Amino acid sequence: MLSTPVLLRAQDSTAAAAPAGGGDVAKGESLFKNNCAQCHAVTDERVVGPGLKGATSRQDMPWLIKWVRNSQAVIASGDPYAVKLYNEYSKAQMTSFPNLSEDDIKSIFAYVDQAATAPAPTAAAAGGAPAATGAADSGPSDLFMIVVVALVVVMLLVLGVLLVIVSLLSKAVAGGTEAAPKADFMTRLSTSLKNFAMDSSIRSATIWVFALLVLKATIDGAFNVGVQQGYAPKQPISFSHKLHAGEYKIDCNYCHTGVNRGKSAHIPSANICMNCHGVIKKESPEIQKIYTSIEKNQPIEWVRVHNLPDLAYFNHAQHVNVGGVECENCHGDVAQMEVIQQRSSLTMGWCIDCHRKTEVNTKDNQYYDKLVQLHGSESKEALKVADIGGLECSKCHY
Length: 398
Description:
- The structure is a single chain.
- The chain has helices at residues 25-35, 55-58, 61-69, 71-76, 80-88, 102-117, 121-126, 132-174, 185-198, 200-223, 241-247, 252-255, 270-277, 285-295, 316-322, 327-331, 348-357, 369-378, 393-396.
- The two termini are 48 Å apart.
- The radius of gyration is 34 Å and the shape is elongated.
- The chain has 19 helices and no strands.
- It is mainly α.
């Protein structure tokens, strides 16, 4: 809920208890995910702020409502519990939510109580009951068996063809008579293979096939020069986008501050990390690396993942702020990446293909009125980026 690291925590088992009765759980779930999930978990786990499990058993609902709406006022009143929490969390100020009604706050804690008491998804699987994970585990096994069976079938077919060829060659070169009896099978096979290898047309065909394969491999290699698709270098600090952008839903713009304003999206500096980690998980070995960087006044040497050649110009603000392109379009589903990697090829052909397919959003934008009118007189298709100069060399090369 709360974009700053103070809410409630299990401390005193004798604190007043009151259920979050009367709250709308479905409404509370929506409010929690929109306002609270970035900083709080419904369990005991500490994220930016403490976990909310059992909050309604530690303080009554009127106190919780006052706290959520204006925690600083509760602290200023001298409330011992509030003052203790405030001091424990390094006097970090919690954002107030005066816009939330009493019913809204009751709904949030009703959802927290229900989610906190719900059985863990893995509990059924651990007890032996069939769960979704069981179906997932059977997938690879079935696929493996299909692949094995297919390979066996192919091998049998190849073996059958070879046997037919050997049989035909054996008959062709046997030539046995009463005066000259047939040679044994291995001798006939050896003779057939030698004749096959000495055939000039067969040798020529083999050489041509080999030359074409080498040429294709060379061309493929030339086209892939500079392409780093799948590149996922080891970083100096283990940073999980899956945790930050996925689970905690931190906006990309919060860390990459230049994405809406300039050419580069910017790699976040240590002070951005410290906005949260000055309070949470300070003891983590990875977080200690950030402290060391600050103490030594040395920047964190992050390894750049997405690289374009110097001859290519790309502006993040032009695409994100003006064009409305989502981060996932180029970078893939970053929210599911434990280790960030380059998902797209970022080649010239990849960019041009995007410009040819992407429609320009001209709605309520007078800048495009004349362009739309001119385009409409020549084509019935929607206005694409390619139609407004998106394929001109000078747009990307200068």
